Amino acid sequence: MRAAEAKAALNRDHWEWDDDGAYAVIDPASLKAMVAMETPKVGETREQGCAVCLEGFVAGGKKLRMMPCSHSFHQRCIFDLLLRSRFCPVCRFEMPPRSADEPEPEPVAEKTATTSERVGSN
Questions:
Q1: N or C terminus of the chain: which is more exposed, having fewer CB within 10 Å?
Q2: Long-range residue pairs from 111-116, CB within 8 A, at least 24 positions apart, any chain
Q3: Dihedral, CA of residue 118, residue 111, residue 27 and residue 45, to nearest 10
Q4: What is the CATH number of the domain that holds 96?
Q5: Where do the segments described as Disordered lie (predicted)?
């Protein structure tokens, strides 16, 4: 199948605009599979850092998640990625796809610091 035919064969729901104004494929992982991933502690993983954000794993720091392929990431990093693509960013392991009966996840609003919080209140 040629690339153009493959694109046409994809369900329209799997496409969204990216920041450059081009279409990007959206193929989310199953939410059930995501929350079922193991939650290792620092030192229980092969990796010493997250391949998504490139930050090191720190004891007492961000929560970790281990995919079935045994690659570990910060929970927020891998969850954000798996909401768009069901593939491991390291080895391309395929997570189960989101089924039609799974609800859409609600976006998580990040708290942004006000200027006084960043600088310190007087």
A1: C
A2: none
A3: 70
A4: 3.30.40.10
A5: 96-122
> How many domains are contained in the chain?
1
Q: How far, in Å, are 64, 112, 113 from residue 15 at the CA level? A: 29, 29, 32
Ordered DSSP codes for 5-45: HHHHHS-GGGEEE-TTSSEEE-BPBPHHHHHTSB-PPTTSS
Q: What are phi and psi of 9, to 5 degrees?
A: -75, -20
